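Predict structure. Chain length: 241.
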Amino acid sequence: MNRRGFIASLTVVSTLIGLMLSLQISARSASPQDNTGGNQSSLDLQEELMEQNQEHSLLLQEIEKAEKQLLTFETSGSSHEDRKEALEKDAAQLKAAAGLTPVTGAGIEITIQADPTLPGYDANTVFDPQLNLTPVINYLFAQGAKAISINGYRFVGTSSLRDVGDEKNPVLQVNGHSIAPPYVIKAIGDVSAMNAVLTANGFAKNFNEIGEDFTVRTMSSLTVPGYHDVLPGRYAKEVTP
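Prediction complete.
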């Protein structure tokens, strides 16, 4: 591998480290609210802040490790192939941590859609997907979900649910892609913990009261796809002196 190729490989790894840092810091940045509209308790918020600070510290350690590795590569006599292999290994690990690769494991699948047979159904009431789905995502992440997708799109720290429609015709977007009901949320992680938080916060009951069916299926194996949209810094180029 020539020097330019080596530098390009290092740039990929550095970009992924930066992405991983941004995802971890921004993940769960919106504090979940309870079903009465109140905020989390002060204690919960302090605990979440401490967890994010710990994650931040760990990521800074990873960056320091990468910088030391770069210095080692520059000063060591190891072959280009050894360096390439080490960089590729690091890149693979960072891609997984940043949500760029598919994840398979035990999890839950939530399906949300209008149900005219429910007592709370009202054809004149417009369901707000952004307002109602955001707390579900936040609580799942808070319970340690390792990977989440919505209608096939991976939800990561830089993702958001956006309503780009109007009051009468809401259109939900995930990662810039418009999706329509039924909304299918897949989450991989501690099944018991995720089911428990959904039950404790009465999501099924609350959704039913506004005419929306909220079905949760526990699955021994499901796959959440990797994030496949444009990454921050994708078009950054090396500046030649």
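Summary: The first strand starts at residue 103 and ends at 114.
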